Amino acid sequence: MTCRDFPFQLRSCVWEITLACCFRCAYCGSRGGKARENELTTAECLDVARQLAEMGCRRVSVIGGEVFMRPDWAEIVDALTSRGVKACIITNGFRMSPAVISELKRVNVESVAVSIDGVRAVHDAYRRKGSYDRAIETLKVLAAAGIPVSVITSLRADNAPLLSALYRELRQLPLFAWQIQACSPMGSADDNGLSVLFNAREVIRFVAETAPSAPFAVGVADNIGYFTSEEGSIRGVSGAYFEGCSAGLTTLGIDSVGNVRGCESMYDERFVEGNLRERSLADIWTAPEAFAYNRRFTPEMLTGACKTCPQGDICAGGCRSYNFFTTGRLYENCLCAFANS
Predict the structure, then answer these.
(1) Which DSSP category does 247 fall into?
(2) Are 223 and 244 in contact, with CB atoms under 8 Å apart?
(3) pLDDT digits (tens, 9 = 90+) for 252-311
(4) At a CB cut-off of 8 Å and minimum separation 6, what does 330 contact?
(5) What is the CA radius of gyration of the chain?
(6) What does the alpha-carbon distance between residue 151 and residue 17 come to, in Å, rounded to a whole number?
(7) How far is CA 12 from each of CA 87, 148, 263, rounded to the nearest angstrom?
(8) Would you give the distance in Å from CA 263 to the centre of its chain?
(9) Which of 148, 195, 223, 279 has the fewest CB atoms inside 10 Å of its own CB, making it the most exposed?
(10) CA distances from 218 to 43, 61, 119 (A)
(11) What are phi and psi of 14, to 5 degrees?
(12) Contact 66, 54 (CB under 8 A)
């Protein structure tokens, strides 16, 4: 069976090309800062790009660490876009320069997303002093250069109640989208004992009230939800409904040493399906036992409040990564505003 005939078709990928970063954020899920030993070489990355394109992957989100800390980042992105794969880069926005902007335009990047986690005092407290102002400036100069820009905000217990204040600042910027997601208690967030739980119902209400009049799309990510009366208006696209975790079904994650997971947020060795230095991407993707937690899901696997939820067969218990790192159980979501209401 070829990949094109396989029942699960790869459509998107999150690819961490390095762990090197100019920050050591207190809540970084991957503990970014220093590059891993033996990260994929340029030649290996170019081959990964070829494999992604040949498998029909349509979009790749390129992440770090900090993407621009890797000298060959543009060559890697070009290997994707030149094959018709759309590429988005996620950055902290601290290392932007005219040279980087020129390269972004040359390799035809689809968009750039900048991480901003709150107003200046909140953002800088977890990153470094001056990082908020640099991120805002990055958004402005990228937009002025004709590169579409968006913002990603990761919510914890401390910054979730402050979304309105952040929105008042973001609405002045030339964004096309604002994605709001839950920070998982993994990596540095776990190391530092950060409190990540927040009132999902309040966040959903904020998005539902804000999105209709916002000058850009506003939506929650797949680890916040699900199926409240606002579903259909809170995921950034009108009429969009959460239909379950896509890890290993249509999406996958690749880390900087070539490990493949169903989702790059499933940052635990237990979820590694194979390594690209040992097996091809197609072989890993089509293996009979691969991504069994999703490919073999049945509603009987749901636990907790999700077990009796009437939407359980559709949402399948929500985000696998967030579930695992908050409860240790894949099929039970503690942030569900419907099942836990």
Answers:
(1) B
(2) no
(3) 999 999 999 999 999 999 999 999 999 999 999 999 999 999 999 999 999 999 999 999
(4) 293, 301, 317, 320, 323, 324
(5) 19
(6) 20
(7) 10, 19, 10
(8) 9
(9) 195
(10) 38, 19, 17
(11) -110, 120
(12) no
Count CA within 13 A, CB hemisphere, residue 118. 16
CA distances from 231 to 178, 226, 227, 228 (A): 17, 7, 5, 6
Name the one residue in this structure whose structure tokens are 């040949």. 54
Q: Find out whether 181 and 154 touch, Cβ atoms under 8 Å.
A: yes
Residue 50 burial (C-beta neighbours within 10 Å; 0-12, 13-18, 19+): middle
Residue type, 246: S
- DSSP-derived pairing of the beta strands 274-275 and 259-261: antiparallel
Residue keyed to tokens 């394109």? 53
Chain segment 137-146, per-residue pLDDT in tens: 999 999 999 9
* Stretch 44-71: mean pLDDT: 97
What pLDDT score does 90 carry? 97
What is residue 304's three-state secondary structure?
A: helix
Q: Which residues of 220-246 are buried (b: 16+ CB within 10 A; e: fewer)?
A: bbbbbbbbbebbebbbbeeeebbebbb
For residues 147 and 175, the answer to whether their CB atoms sit within 8 Å is no
Quick count: other Cβ atoms within 10 Å of Cβ 17?
Answer: 25
User: Alpha-carbon distance 332 to 293, whole Å?
Assistant: 13
Task: Give the Cα separation of 50 and 154 in Å (integer).
Answer: 31
Q: Is the pTM of this model over 0.70?
A: yes
Q: φ, ψ for residue 253 (rounded to 5)? A: -125, 145
